[in-house]
Amino acid sequence: MRIGIVAPSCRIDEDVVQRVAALAEGRAELAWHPQCLLSDGHFAGPDAVRAEALIAYANDPAIDAIWFARGGYGACRIVAQVIDALRPIAREKTYLGYSDPGTLLGALYARGIGRVAHGPMPADVRRAGGEAAVSRALDWLVDGSTTALEPSLGEVPAAAFNIVILAHLIGTRHLPDLSGHVLMIEEVAEYLYRTDRDLAQIIQHPSIRGVAGIRMGRISQVPGNDPDFGAEPEAVVRHWCARAGIPFLGAADIGHDAGNKIVPFGPSSSGA
Amino acid sequence: MRIGIVAPSCRIDEDVVQRVAALAEGRAELAWHPQCLLSDGHFAGPDAVRAEALIAYANDPAIDAIWFARGGYGACRIVAQVIDALRPIAREKTYLGYSDPGTLLGALYARGIGRVAHGPMPADVRRAGGEAAVSRALDWLVDGSTTALEPSLGEVPAAAFNIVILAHLIGTRHLPDLSGHVLMIEEVAEYLYRTDRDLAQIIQHPSIRGVAGIRMGRISQVPGNDPDFGAEPEAVVRHWCARAGIPFLGAADIGHDAGNKIVPFGPSSSGA
Lengths: 272, 272
What we know:
2 copies of one chain form a homodimer.
Chain A lengths: L1 E5 L7 H11 L4 E4 L14 H12 L6 E4 L6 H11 L8 E4 L4 H9 L4 E4 L11 H14 L14 E5 H7 L12 E7 L3 H13 L1 H4 L3 E8 L12 H12 L3 E4 L11 E2 L8
Parallel strand pairs in A: 1-2, 1-3, 3-4, 4-5, 6-7, 7-8, 8-9
Antiparallel strand pairs in A: 5-10
Organism (chains A, B): Sphingomonas horti
Protein name (chains A, B): LD-carboxypeptidase
Keywords (chains A, B): Carboxypeptidase, Hydrolase, Protease, Serine protease
């Protein structure tokens, strides 16, 4: 299996390449696009270069899966160019990532392009215990391992997003129709008042109001609010679910951490 | 003139009441709703109490204008309840504020309720030179002073928003149709990558794509980006204007500071 790695947001360092290559040795061929190591201010190269790298790999028949290297910020600057340039061969591939590249996952899923999944990325190897996250991603990409999957997945179609990324898809043409889906959400390092504000925007949208329910992944590294926000993260999620009449379904085993499980979008508990 | 003051977001302290009352002495009667001083976690009282305070004043025939006391966060939690409870008398009033209460300004303007304006609030009295900002608001509210107005205002209708607040109106029923308007935007204390992300969402929306142009207010207190973002605030605004084919019209004299001028929404360079 040939896995193409591109960085639509921020760059990675050479050590990520080395450590992930070691984990993939003998399991899959990793094609690291040199764009992953570029630097242009905040981004892993200029918009056009990041877009062209992703387009080239997505349209390359010799690549079986696209693995987003890292999050950060930048996918929303290239999503329109990328989506409009994909050829039919791009529909045959798997796309894996989370956090900022969730913008691309949403846009791909909105058009039924490829098998889209929320899960660990190469840069996660730097986390404490991060090798397990990367190995889990390979287990799913290479072997279709079901043990890599978020455990609540079942018959109902699912999708997963970082909360602030989903909020920024609202009102754009890249938001997929999530009606009937179990929507899993997670967040990291955001003030709770911001997550509350994001959820206010998210749950007002008709497509979101039609979800089968919401599961809460980890909302981690929340900075202290001054004054105290007055509610815990779960109470915030439950508040907005209740206001929108959306069932709160409990926890999802996803988040910005090494435990992050894989959520294929759609009715797909069957692995890659 | 009787000006009703409510706090849809965060609370104010007693010193704001005293200092603003002194500035208004002999000019206007200020009706401070006691809700302004309440505290409930992050907010100036629970959602229902904040909503009821605003509804009561907006529906009170003895109140001529509603002045939002302060920003922070919280208006989006009450906007639906407020809008749906306003009676015809609420349409006769002026509404003044900015920052987080911009959510309410947008929702009011979307329904043609009242004379809506972006400008200083009582809590601005605490800023360096803040008495000038509060006096400017009174000049406009009480005397309809045109010197209080943002100087570029003219024949073309205008509107003004904090960027992150406008981004969170996208895709909701509270976003007004801004086609044909000069849209003025300002921001404070946000990482530039976040402002970039907000603008990406904002300029994709059809209503925003139809604006007559965008003017950039102050984008101030931007925290340092690591790595350097690679562009200055004006380049970021120009980038998104160019991508959307929206004319960039230059600077607007608004911002989270004592110099913040007043921008009545709509075709209204005629003051209050």
